[in-house]
Design a protein that fits this description.
single chain, about 80 residues, mainly alpha, 2 helices, about 75% helix, rod-shaped
């Protein structure tokens, strides 16, 4: 094997590795996008549940709940349009 053949072999190995890495990156980006969508939905549900708790108990549960600060933060956002924390 001469030097030119060795260069071609190394170049093809590097090209294959780059293609594999690009596929992995695309798969991870897709997983990240799906996870972000799930977080957004869960954030909206949490906001609704906090509002429902406050309305149903007229704030009485806030004395016993360990998440009162979270509810306050959710209520102070622009109608929940804030991105998930």
């Amino acid at each position: 094997m001469n030097i030119e053949e060795l260069r071609k072999a190394l170049a093809s190995d590097a090209t294959e590795k780059v293609k594999e890495q690009e596929k992995t990156i695309q798969a991870l980006e897709k997983q990240l996008e799906e996870a972000e969508n799930i977080i957004k939905v869960q954030y909206k549900v949490l906001r609704v549940m906090c509002n429902r708790c406050i309305v149903m108990t007229r704030g009485a549960m806030c004395l016993f709940c360990g998440h009162a600060g979270l509810c306050e933060d959710l209520r102070n956002t622009d109608n929940g349009n804030k991105t998930a924390p």
